[in-house]
Specification:
heteropentamer; A alpha+beta (about 260); B mainly alpha (about 180); C alpha+beta (about 170); D alpha/beta (about 750); E mainly alpha (about 450); D: about 750 residues; alpha/beta; N-terminal domain of TfIIb; Rossmann fold; Dimethylsulfoxide Reductase, domain 2; 4 domains; seven-stranded mixed sheet; 24 helices; 26 strands; about 15% strand; E: about 450 residues; mainly alpha; Formate dehydrogenase/DMSO reductase fold; 17 helices
């Protein structure tokens, strides 16, 4: 009953979109494409951190690979003026994520940290979220994957190994965020500080092209870099409000 | 001539009774298993009694479960820890002799996990101990249990209910407990 | 009440005729049985009112309100924001509301039907198998002493045969 | 329950009761069993018998050590949980990696946990090369080797023992020299075809220091790279990638950043677009091997006919250089102007430019550019490293291709020669040259020290399994450094998984099984003790300068940090005294029968092939093509047209030395007269993930060498291509590689997104 | 029913009742074939897929939805024949409906069941499907009613419930007839199934009302069901799916394919159950007209979709369109246009509309076309979304093909069982269309 009362007294609140602006943190990334060299260290780092399976050649050839972060490559021009551009593509943690609405069992939703979550054990595998995702960064466990012994000893105990039929995707290394919060609490801090957290990709990046931080904090590096003139978000016309801002690669034709 | 359902239903009586008996037998078998082999209180390799240790001698939980305040796991005491006392105490008891055998053969005791959370659950003992949640809240009155028994359902609703009651920060966020 | 008399007719207009006469003779417990729905029964036996529509309406309203509340409350009971949409957005929840309206409306109508049609027949009721085929029948429940009168009226109206059934 | 009488049934009462009884018990049993099997399997809690010190389950520990997967020597931090290595990160305190890692470095865990690791010593049973081995104990394996060595030594024929290793630096190197010295042998060679032998040689010729200088890319503002894929796997990829980031966009906020300067510009000169070429502002496809001419052409314009080299440069006017290199004269002039105008220009050479028969002259010509720019020893230029804290420089250690061949053949010629091979796989790296295999076959005893049964180990008589770099002790003085003296320690981060030993331990144990003199000369219980001892000597030398209570404190601090360094810089040198001349490249095969230049390239994931057994690397899309699990041959669309082939068509690639088959990948990033192929696949024996996958381009190379150093010239072969009519579908991640005008790479420059938004 | 040769009540019974009790060798053959195909084509591959994972199907990255969902829409579409049509015609008091509606409704029910099977086949973790059901649970967590998939769950559940009730309630008087003509156990079963129906004036009156209520409730429901199915797709932002026209497009296509399905079933009932006197040219003629109308609407909407996609000038839409019209699956697209837009135009001719055999082939062709449409919706849009680097390709695997074939066997099996359990033609309603036997009538 109190719930019904609550519903009516707070009717306008429940009806107000855009609640995420009041979230504790709003984790975001800035990826400087002028620094990114496409070396793919981030890809392996992510694989190692998040227990991504080794799917094998056959399944890879069927497009069943699982790479939470991948490097997309786009050519422009013809030989000899050909140009190749790289762009790391990972879950954009959209504030208005098309995927979240799709899940019938709320396995994916937006949490207090402004993260687009994926709760593996809740997933029933309708794959709707992946269809709705314009960035193609959600991956499905078409099979239960195994590791040749003793490779399984490397698996990160902080991350669940997903079974067949489960959707997965970049979590911004939630296990690291959780650990950092835990340490902050141990130190008696309420809030995390800039630099407490680095996702595996950002940490591995040899050129430091990936910067991670809290977009809610105006002094943070991400917040400042996001306002760079080169900043843009991919597929902005879809109005998904991604948490990842890319800094355009500088085209310097006249050297 | 007359018509109704009852007469027809009567024809199915033997079938219904047979199905009923079968179902009852099935349920009885199920219940019997739960009664004779309770999953909540399995038989341990050594009849370790918390009544003696935690109850009678009032040994603090964290004296043996040493990691509880520091780590996600509370930690089962190493065999060395047990032997710390039982080299001298109660060495004549058969259960202690079992312990001594493990110690002498340098083997770990294969305790059976009673409070077994699913692999996708992240449960830090540390946070709960530091928040001064009594061990008994989740583990029951351990000091009165001769054999450890799972009292709490350890279901999600139960966890979240407590989080709610205590107004835990982000206590309802899935990623607080799932990994 | 102790006598149950059934009259069997080959023609529908005979049946209605018989029913009219029985009604006129003061018998209230008259049931007509036919292989198809008969029109014009109300003219003979008086108008029928059924509670069916109330069941349907009630079911639909309960379904509608309940459906919306189910959607809204289950969203509030465990708030999981999605896609920047409201927690209780009405357009999608109206779809749920619509579906539950129909669902409960249908189920209530079904219950209403059983309720108002006196089905299922738990107790034995007078009947002849020919009524599902090509014969029409009338059943009158009356006192033992009125039985002969009833049989007479039935036969007068052109009954093929008249039977007394035990229940 | 049971009815007394069942009217419709013909069952007797007894039968009926029996039936009911059976049915009931069967159902009850079924219920019992369902309950049993529907319950989650019991999990056990296994405590330690005696818990290790400082161990908390559920809490991660971090250990610093050194990556050993390429010669760069990056410092890494390994995350350990419950005694198992979980993740490798760059060590932020280490000046080489500065917290970053490369893709290959991340995969180091799969070296440790590789399912195909050798777990026990094995000895050969069948013919050499057949892979027929059986396991033996350490004791018998070591005794066999030790007795053999002992016999030779006592007969004063110890010189017949040779040691062939990969890139070994630091005190292990000293230990091996000592061991061989005690044997009375000087036969010790380090070989890997990726060793920058020509670069050492060219630097020796140009500046009199045979070392790899530190190219200060971060502080340069115009970088002219001749074939050096420094963002790929060239010399020290992590360090240079880090520098590249700063070169482009300055230091990150929050770090100590210098004055914000102009974005650095990168020009990459190479026939096939490498990862660095893809990131360059201008990619200049020059004819393979003519980079030197191009450098001289640029120097010609910069020098403007004046100075010491005027005469030598006179003939390299743009039109002539354009003719040689296939680069337009206007481009050359533009590059020269930009190079000359830049505040801190820098030229580096490597990769294909150094892999021709004229590698050294090419690199000398490139050094000349640096000299003309006056950037030697300056910030943003070529910075020379001080002498390493210990060990020898690469020039002293490395042997060239010809050296290796001579080395092995000499041992084969000795009676009872023994060859010990550790950490190198020349049979994979080698060109299609039968001489090495023939020589190996003649050596009576070949001992291999390896973690994997690779191609070379197939020819060994005894293979001793060694620790992976995450299980053993070691130290390292990275080369190139970062302009100052750096030393790092690698320590075991996990207990050895199998019955394996450090390379150093193997030699100490061998000595202990030999005669008294050897035992006395190598008295340490294990390599760890040796290492600690060596560092104690280092500490004793500097005791006054160092701020530690005693050696133990120093040692603990170094282990904790993983790195120790001194900010000592080398003296600046700006003399350039080499003869400048251009030597045209010589390619094996004439241009009629073999119309295409063949450029194998070191691939990002596999380095020289050693990464091919790591499943993460096999599943890592190639940065340029996104292909995984295979090799390919890169063709310009024009070439493909000419041959009438399409993507995935399999070509027969034949050179004077052999032939192989590879599928076609059509790319805009290669010259029409050149074809390229990645190195790394085509292993015949390297574990389940690598064996029999793709083709090895090195196997069809002619045995061309640099005319001065004898280094293997792997970019100096020509090939012919014949379509086979077969076809495969590439396994890759990428779909289409054009943006179709979609706003993916951002609005065009000069436009902000708000302006370009059409949604 | 025409006066000429009008059957008597008794003849109606005699025409229908034997179809339930006579088992010809033809029936047994058909049943055993369809059961075999169902087991080995549907359940065995499904079991295999449950065992290894959905990877047994041909779906992959980008093409996360495949044949299963295509088939799902197809079967949901097919289900729009019966209940909707029956209800509409009931409300509009079109008497010609009465001889065909029972089998049409059965089609609805069985295609819905088949469609529901596809939802399950599609799921990655079938064993947790109960999480989509709004019931209190130990997690304290409810389904997400904002998801179009939950609309689907609700809609299909409602539709399935309503349809079952609709067909069952309509059959109750006929069950009584069966009861009265049967003996032994069969009689007892039907006695229960008809609830002790006697056909009293009260029962008829209530049934009439209830039936009308059902009809009224079912019509908007049926429209909503396929709209909701279309929203599964249209609520995504996938180019080629994100169209506002999708709901009417789906509904129209659904009725189109459903009506064609009725024609097919009608043909077979008429042929094998000898319902020539009850299913006549009039039925084929009327349904032919309906098919023609629906085909025209369908073509119009299709044109709209293509036109707006092309005219938008958006790179996404144009690429999606290009792939659909000229890509790998283009032959299928043009086959669909031929079968669903052009072929039905011949129905302008009454001669063709009343030619049973031609109508059969046309109806089958239309359903092949509609099946293709559903396949194309999933196969051509998802592999070509937004990022060209992630473009891929979808090709059904053997498991998917087997399950597709098997699902037709599921439907057929259910239908074959149905004709022996239910009177496949509504006896009492057919009787209603006949002249009421009156003494007056007998005299004239």
């Amino acid at each position: 009953m109190s719930l019904i009362k609550d519903l009516f007294t707070n009717w306008s609140v429940w009806r107000r979109p855009g609640y995420f602006e009041s979230f504790d943190y709003s984790w975001g990334m800035v990826i400087d494409l002028d620094r990114c060299t496409g070396c793919e260290a981030c890809v392996v780092a992510c694989t190692a951190e998040n227990n991504l399976p080794i799917v094998g050649e056959k399944r890879f050839s069927e497009n069943r690979e699982i790479k939470w972060i991948r490097i997309e490559r786009y050519w422009s021009g013809e030989y000899p003026n050909a140009k190749l551009s790289f762009i790391p593509m990972l879950c954009q943690h959209c504030d208005q994520a098309p995927c979240e609405i799709a899940c019938p069992v709320s396995a994916t939703y937006h949490n207090q940290d402004g993260l687009n979550t994926q709760i593996y054990n809740r997933c029933i595998g309708t794959r709707t979220c992946a269809v709705y995702c314009p960035y193609e960064v959600r991956f499905f466990n078409w099979f239960s994957y195994t590791w040749d012994a003793p490779l399984e000893q490397q698996l990160n105990p902080d991350v669940t190994v997903r079974e067949k039929g489960v959707m997965e995707k970049c979590t911004f290394c939630i296990q690291r965020i959780r650990e950092a919060k835990d340490h902050a609490k141990d130190d008696g801090r309420r809030r995390l500080r800039e630099g407490d957290i680095q996702p595996a990709c950002a940490q591995a990046c040899p050129t430091k092209a990936i910067v991670f931080g809290d977009r809610n904090d105006p002094d943070s590096q991400v917040a400042q870099m996001a306002s760079d003139a080169r900043g843009y978000t991919v597929l902005k016309e879809l109005n998904t409000s991604p948490s990842i801002v890319y800094l355009r690669r500088v085209d310097q034709e006249h050297v | 001539m007359s018509v109704s359902v009852r007469e027809a239903l009567g024809a199915f009586k033997p079938a219904a009774i047979a199905v009923g008996i079968a179902l009852a037998a099935y349920i009885a078998g199920w219940v019997a298993y739960e009664v004779f082999f309770p999953g909540t209180a399995p038989v341990q390799p050594i009849e370790f009694s918390h009544v003696i240790h935690a109850g009678d001698y009032q040994i603090d939980c964290q004296y043996c479960h040493i990691y509880a305040a520091r780590s996600t796991t509370a930690g089962v005491p190493a065999v060395e820890k047990c032997m710390g006392c039982h080299k001298v105490i109660a060495t004549d008891k058969p259960e202690i002799q079992k312990l001594t055998d493990y110690w002498n053969s340098r083997q770990a005791i294969p305790w059976i996990k009673v409070h077994d959370l699913a692999d996708f659950v992240y449960f830090p003992h540390k946070r709960h101990v530091q928040a001064e949640v009594a061990c008994q809240t989740c583990h029951g009155e351990v000091q009165t249990m001769a054999r450890i028994e799972r009292v709490a359902p350890l279901s999600m609703k139960w966890c979240v209910g407590c989080h709610e009651e205590r107004e835990v920060e982000n206590g309802r966020d899935c990623w607080t407990c799932h990994k | 009440m102790s006598a149950n008399i059934i009259g069997v007719y080959q023609y529908a207009d005979d049946l209605l005729d018989a029913a009219g006469r029985l009604k006129a003779s003061g018998f209230d417990e008259i049931e007509l049985m036919s292989p198809i729905p008969l029109h014009g029964v109300e003219k003979v036996l008086g108008p029928k009112k059924s509670v069916l529509r109330r069941f349907a309406l009630f079911g639909a309203i309960v379904g509608g309100v309940g459906g919306f509340l189910m959607a809204a409350l289950s969203a509030i009971v465990f708030i999981l924001p999605t896609s920047g949409r409201p927690i209780v957005p009405w357009p999608p929840f109206l779809i749920i509301t619509f579906e539950t309206t129909i669902l409960l409306g249908t189920l209530a109508t079904l219950i209403g039907f059983f309720f108002s049609a006196n089905l299922p027949a738990w107790k034995d009721r007078p009947y002849l198998p020919a009524f599902s085929d090509n014969r029409f029948g009338v059943h009158v429940g009356c006192d033992e002493d009125a039985a002969e009168k009833v049989e007479k009226i039935m036969l007068d109206a052109g009954a093929e045969k008249v039977e007394r059934v035990k229940t | 329950m049971a009815r007394k009488k069942n009217p419709g049934s013909k069952l007797s009462r007894r039968e009926f009761l029996a039936l009911v009884g059976t049915g009931t018990s069967v159902m009850a049993g079924a219920g019992f069993l369902t309950a049993k099997f529907s319950r989650r399997p019991v999990e056990q809690l296994i405590p330690y018998v005696v818990p290790p010190e400082d161990y908390i389950p559920g809490v991660a520990a971090y250990y610093n050590t050194v990556c050993n997967l390429c010669p760069a020597g990056c410092g890494i931090t390994v995350r350990i949980r419950e005694g198992r290595a979980k993740k490798i990160e760059g060590n932020p305190a280490h000046p080489v990696s500065q917290g970053g890692t490369c893709a290959l470095g991340q995969s180091g865990l799969q070296v440790l946990y590789n399912p195909d690791r050798l777990q026990t010593p094995v000895t050969r049973r069948g013919e050499r090369g057949t892979g027929d081995f059986h396991t033996v104990g350490w004791n018998s394996a070591l005794t066999t080797v030790a007795s053999h060595l002992d016999k030779l030594r006592l007969a004063n024929r110890g010189a017949g023992v040779g040691l062939l290793t990969g890139d070994i630096r630091g005190h292990l190197d000293d230990l091996l020299i000592q061991f061989l010295g005690l044997m009375g042998s000087g036969r010790y060679l380090q070989y890997a075809f990726t060793n920058p032998t020509n670069l050492y040689s060219a630097n020796a010729a140009s500046f009199d220091t045979a070392q790899l200088p530190y190219y200060d890319i971060a502080n340069s503002d115009f970088l002219l790279s001749f074939g050096a894929d420094f963002l790929g796997m060239w010399v020290s990829p992590v360090s240079y990638s880090r520098a590249y980031g700063d070169f482009r966009q300055g230091r990150r906020e929050g770090e100590d950043k210098g004055p914000r300067r102009q974005r650095g510009q990168l020009v990459q000169i190479e026939p096939r677009m490498s990862l660095t070429g893809a990131n360059a502002d201008i990619w200049v496809p020059a004819v393979p091997g003519t980079e030197g001419a191009l450098a001289l052409g640029i120097a010609h314009i910069i020098a403007g006919g004046a100075g010491r080299f005027a005469a030598a440069l006179a003939e390299f006017d743009p039109p002539r250089v354009a003719e040689i290199s296939g680069v337009e004269a206007s481009t050359i002039e533009r590059l020269a102007r930009s190079f000359g105008d830049a505040k801190a220009p820098l030229a580096i050479g490597g990769g294909g430019a150094a892999a021709g028969t004229n590698g050294v002259p090419n690199l000398v010509a490139i050094n000349l550019l640096n000299h003309l720019a006056g950037n030697i020893g300056r910030e943003g230029g070529v910075v020379f490293n001080p002498k390493p804290a210990f060990g020898r420089t690469g020039m002293q250690r490395h042997g060239s291709y010809l050296d290796l061949l001579a080395f092995v053949e000499e041992i084969a010629d000795v009676d009872d020669g023994v060859l010990i091979i550790a950490g190198t796989n020349p049979l994979y790296d080698f060109p299609g040259d039968e001489r090495l295999v023939r020589a190996l076959q003649r050596i009576p005893l070949v001992v291999g020290l390896s973690s994997f049964m690779d191609e070379t180990m197939q020819y060994a008589d005894i293979v001793l399994p060694v620790n992976s770099y995450l299980e053993g002790w070691g130290d390292d003085a990275p080369e190139p450094g970062v302009g100052m003296r750096v030393a790092s320690i690698s320590q075991p981060v996990v207990a050895p998984l199998y019955d394996t030993m450090d390379v150093g331990d193997v030699f100490i144990r061998l000595a202990q099984r030999m005669d008294r003199d050897m035992q006395r000369a190598m008295p340490w219980p294990d390599f760890h003790a040796y290492l600690r001892n060596a560092w104690r000597r280092m500490y004793d030398k500097r005791r006054d300068k160092l701020d530690y209570v005693d050696f133990d404190a120093f040692w603990t601090a170094v282990l904790e940090a993983g790195v120790w360094g001194e900010t000592r810089r080398a003296s600046q040198r700006n003399e350039f005294h080499a003869q400048v001349d251009y030597e045209p490249p010589v390619h094996a095969g004439n241009d009629v029968d073999y119309p295409w230049y063949f450029q194998p390239f070191v691939s990002q994931g596999f380095f020289d092939g050693r990464g091919a057994n790591l499943p993460w690397q096999q599943e890592l899309p190639d940065p340029m093509t996104s292909i995984v699990y295979g090799s390919w041959i890169e063709l310009n669309p024009r070439t493909a047209n000419e041959l009438g082939v399409d993507e995935g068509d399999i070509l027969e690639v034949s050179s004077p030395a052999g032939s192989l088959r590879a599928p076609v990948w059509i790319t805009q990033g290669i010259r029409p007269d050149t074809v390229a192929m990645p190195i790394g696949q085509g292993h015949t024996s390297f574990g389940r993930y690598a064996t029999g996958r793709g083709a090895n381009p090195l196997s069809i190379l002619s045995a061309q060498v640099d005319s001065r150093t004898g280094a293997f010239a792997w970019g100096a072969t020509r090939v012919n291509l014949t379509p086979t009519g077969e076809r495969i579908r590439f396994v890759k991640t990428g779909g289409w590689s054009r943006t179709l005008d979609r706003q993916i790479l951002g609005p065009r420059s000069g436009e902000t997104q708000e302006g370009g938004d059409h949604g | 029913m025409s006066e000429r040769g009008q059957p008597s009540y008794q003849e109606v019974n005699d025409a229908v009742l034997p179809t339930m009790t006579t088992f010809t060798w033809r029936y047994w053959t058909a049943l055993s074939i369809s059961v075999t195909v169902m087991i080995f084509g549907f359940f065995a591959p499904w079991w295999y897929q449950l065992f290894v994972g959905v990877g047994a199907a041909g779906m992959s990255r980008a093409a996360y939805w495949g044949t299963y969902l295509g088939n799902f829409i197809f079967w949901i579409g097919l289900s729009h024949s019966g209940t909707l049509l029956s209800a509409v015609l009931h409300i509009t008091q079109s008497d010609w409906r009465k001889s065909i509606y029972r089998s049409a409704e059965a089609m609805t029910l069985f295609s819905l069941i088949t469609a529901a099977f596809y939802v399950m086949v599609h799921l990655g973790r079938l064993w947790f499907v109960h999480w989509t059901v709004p019931i209190p649970n130990v997690m304290g967590l409810w389904p997400n009613f904002r998801s179009p998939l939950m609309f689907d769950v609700m809609a299909i559940t409602t539709y399935l419930t309503a349809s079952s009730i609709f067909i069952y309630m309509g059959s109750v008087p006929d069950f009584a007839t069966v009861r009265d003509n049967a003996t032994g156990l069969r009689r007892k079963i039907y006695a229960i199934m008809c609830f002790g129906w006697r056909g009293t004036d009260r029962e008829w009156h209530r049934l009439g009302w209830a039936y009308t209520f059902f009809a009224v409730l079912v019509i908007p429901l049926a429209v909503s069901v396929h709209s909701i199915v279309s929203w599964d797709f249209a609520l995504s932002i996938v180019p080629g799916l994100h169209h506002t026209i999708f709901a009417p497009y789906f509904v129209c296509g659904a009725i189109f394919s459903g009506t064609a399905g009725i024609v097919t079933v009608m043909y077979f009932l008429r042929k094998y159950f000898h319902f020539e006197r009850y299913i006549t040219e009039k039925h084929f003629n009327n349904l032919g007209k309906l098919l023609l109308l629906l085909s025209l609407i369908w073509s119009y909407i299709n044109m709209l979709e293509l036109f707006t996609g092309w005219f938008s000038g958006s790179s996404f839409e144009i690429e999606a369109l290009r792939f659909k019209l000229f890509g790998f699956y283009a032959p299928l697209f043009w086959e669909m246009i031929a079968f669903c837009a052009f072929l039905p135009l011949v129905l302008f001719s009454e001669k063709i509309r009343t030619n049973f055999r031609l109508m059969l082939w046309i109806s089958i062709a239309i359903n092949i076309g509609m099946f293709t449409e559903r396949f194309l919706i999933v196969a051509t849009t998802q592999p070509r979304k937004f990022l060209p680097d992630a473009f891929s390709f979808y090709m059904p695997s053997l498991v998917e093909i087997a399950i597709t074939i098997g699902s037709f066997a599921v439907f057929t099996t259910l239908f074959l069982v149905f004709v022996k359990v239910f009177p496949s033609m509504s006896m009492y309603e057919v009787k209603e269309t006949l002249n009421l036997p009156t003494r007056k009538g007998a005299r004239t």
